[in-house]
Design brief:
The protein folds into two domains: 17-261, Aspartate Aminotransferase, domain 2; 270-376, Aspartate Aminotransferase, domain 1 (Alpha-Beta Complex), CATH 3.90.1150. It has eleven helices and eleven strands. The protein has helices at 17-29, 39-59, 73-83, 99-112, 129-132, 158-165, 250-261, 270-281, 310-321, 333-339, 357-376, and strands at residues 67-70, 90-93, 115-118, 142-146, 170-173, 192-196, 208-212, 286-289, 300-305, 326-328, 346-350. The strands form two sheets. Strands 1-7-6-5-4-2-3 form a seven-stranded mixed β-sheet, sandwiched between helices. A four-stranded antiparallel β-sheet has the order 8-9-11-10, with helices on one face. Helix 8 (270-281) packs parallel to helix 11 (357-376). The longest helix has 21 residues, at 39-59. The radius of gyration is 21 Å and the shape is globular. The structure holds pyridoxal-5'-phosphate (PLP). Pyridoxal-5'-phosphate is lined by residues 9, 72-74, 98, 100, 146, 150, 173, 175-176, 196, 331.
Amino acid sequence: MGNYYFDNSATSHPKPPEVAKYINEYLNNGGTYGRSAYDRVITVSRMVENTRVLLAQVIGTGLTNHVIFTSNATHALNIVIKGFPYRNKRILISPLEHNAVTRPLMHLLNVNGVQHYILPHRIDGYIDLDRMRLLDLKSYDLCIVNHVSNVNGVVQPIAELKDLLGDVPLLVDASQSAGHIPLEVDKNNIDMLALTGHKGLMGPTGTGCLFIRNPELVSPLVHGGTGSRSDSHLMPEHLPDRFEAGTPNVLGIYGLYGALSAKVNPGFSFDDFKELLNRIGSLNSFRLVSAGNSTNQAPLFSVTSSRYSPSELSNLLFKRYSIETRSGLHCAPLAHKTLGTFPAGSVRFSLSNFHSSNDLAYLYQALSELDHDSKQR
Ligand SMILES: Cc1ncc(COP(=O)(O)O)c(C=O)c1O
């Protein structure tokens, strides 16, 4: 049987075998992080720091201590959104943001009156850099951009965006891009980046990180023990401790180490993927919801059907073909409003390196049969 799990944007499956191997190693050996000096703790602390180094490599930074472990991307985004000093009370956001951004922003609006404004964009949600040049960018405190949409897979031009923003800090939500698209935060001078460990990076749930170039900008969200400067009632200023109160998810971090040290080559080519999109795009009863330009397309997309609701289609795909997908709004109502698929949402297909070109062919075959059925009725 092939790999018919197409819900990797929710969480990746399967995981590389190294994930279970390192989780087991931790379960067998135990020990806390950074809080004592016997061998077991030294080993654990070294593994946590080695994982931080691997994460720093993934996001392209030499500032390893500026990589803060979090429990997921939502946690990382909340640290910045709630701890940032808003002088003008104005934030720019992309039109494809997830609720992990828009819900904290609504909280900020209600509590502090900080307003958010949607960047000019094209029909597929891709930011329109030319029209963005017309904005008075200096009047905004912060810009937040979802690097890859979790609905249509549009990849935003974060390097060009940061060039235009100049001194206005940019927070990138790399939840759907990490593991798929190079991040290069140093090269592109990205100020802050949030990611989650369990999607494209193929690690366990409960892992993630925040990269923060200028930590003094942001106040910690959580206060507590760090195992350092314990004589003080205040959080330490140094990194990563300033943002890492409480015992970290060591078990998950071991698993993430396994995922980051594994090498999983993709079983399909980008040409196979483009061909799949072209073929689905030509099926009459489906609307393909993807990037307008395939050069800005990550390996995930949605469809809507003229015959079935998203949940009916998702159920049919599972019952008849064992294909696992996500239906509905994917926690991104703003993105669906932008793409014209609100309130019903869509059926999303998200790939991983564990798919083969045969799996993509199987998916197309299933959709074309359902398309054919629609014509018969
Ligand atoms: C674009 C985007 N941002 C943030 C998140 C939140 O990720 P997590 O649930 O791991 O915090 C997701 C997950 O679906 C996402 O797709």
